[in-house]
Amino acid sequence: GAGVSQSPSNKVTEKGKDVELRCDPISGHTALYWYRQSLGQGLEFLIYFQGNSAPDKSGLPSDRFSAERTGGSVSTLTIQRTQQEDSAVYLCASSTGAGAGNEQFFGPGTRLTVL
Amino acid sequence: KQEVTQIPAALSVPEGENLVLNCSFTDSAIYNLQWFRQDPGKGLTSLLLIQSSQREQTSGRLNASLDKSSGRSTLYIAASQPGDSATYLCAVREINDYKLSFGAGTTVTVRA
């Protein structure tokens, strides 16, 4: 595709349910990143993938959050037992690599609302 | 921990005026700095990336400068238009790191 795509665009769930958010990076981009944007916290990093491995998971806020990437392409962010404080916009980005000249390109985001 | 600050938080100018947006960061050991635009309810659009070895980058009406030693970057938008109304975010990537650390953004309104 021409850009990073994410699905769903909006997700409303009840507290305690599990949710899966999907990211399709730009074709050929080996690096993939998840961030979240919330009113109180701004934009914060969650996890970084290089290929299928995640060398940096430092931003995941709790063990309820996990992510995987398969085939060096699609990534899924899973939030188990959702809480109201998980409500935010989850943004995915990709880049051709991790060098200094590599821009991160962002998708449109998934807006998660936990009731 | 890297702290990124953007001042002002909001800016309103008449059409045609030049815009000056400021970004400061606390740790000068950066790999690069990226400027983004975000429209309401949308994702981030990359505007410019400046590598740590560079002093400035230009794209059309946009020019971004970087003074790494003083921890500052400035985004200039010439001859502003109503379509430039958006939130502008700067983000830095530190050496030996992969993530971007973002400022809170400057929300720009260009009045017709």
Secondary structure blueprint with pairings:
The complex is a heterodimer of chains A (115) and B (112).
Chain A: E1 5-7, E2 10-13, E3 19-24, E4 31-38, E5 42-50, E6 53-56, E7 65-69, E8 75-79, E9 88-95, E10 105-106, E11 110-114
Parallel strand pairs in A: 2-11
Antiparallel strand pairs in A: 1-3, 3-8, 4-5, 4-9, 5-6, 7-8, 9-10, 9-11
Chain B: E1 4-7, E2 10-14, E3 19-25, E4 30-38, E5 44-51, E6 56-59, E7 62-67, E8 72-77, E9 86-94, E10 101-102, E11 106-111
Parallel strand pairs in B: 2-11
Antiparallel strand pairs in B: 1-3, 3-8, 4-5, 4-9, 6-7, 7-8, 9-10, 9-11
Task: Walk me through the structure.
The complex is a heterodimer of chains A (115) and B (112). Chain A has strands at residues 5-7, 10-13, 19-24, 31-38, 42-50, 53-56, 65-69, 75-79, 88-95, 105-106, 110-114. By secondary structure, chain A is mainly β. In chain A, β7 and β8 form a beta hairpin. Chain A is 0% helix and 51% strand. The radius of gyration of chain A is 13 Å and the shape is globular. In chain A, the strands form 2 sheets. In chain A, strands 2, 4, 5, 6, 9, 10 and 11 form a 7-stranded mixed β-sheet that branches. A 4-stranded antiparallel β-sheet of chain A has the order 1-3-8-7, with no helix packed on it. Chain B has strands at residues 4-7, 10-14, 19-25, 30-38, 44-51, 56-59, 62-67, 72-77, 86-94, 101-102, 106-111. Chain B is 0% helix and 59% strand. In chain B, the strands form 2 sheets. In chain B, strands 2, 4, 5, 9, 10 and 11 form a 6-stranded mixed β-sheet that branches. In chain B, strands 1-3-8-7-6 form a 5-stranded antiparallel β-sheet, with no helix packed on it. The radius of gyration of chain B is 13 Å and the shape is globular. Chain B is mainly beta and 112 residues long. The chains are: A mainly beta (115), B mainly beta (112). Chain A binds chain B through residues 4, 31, 33, 35, 42-45, 48, 55-56, 59, 91, 93, 98, 100-101, 103-109, and chain B through 31-32, 34, 36, 42-46, 49, 51-53, 89, 91, 97-105.
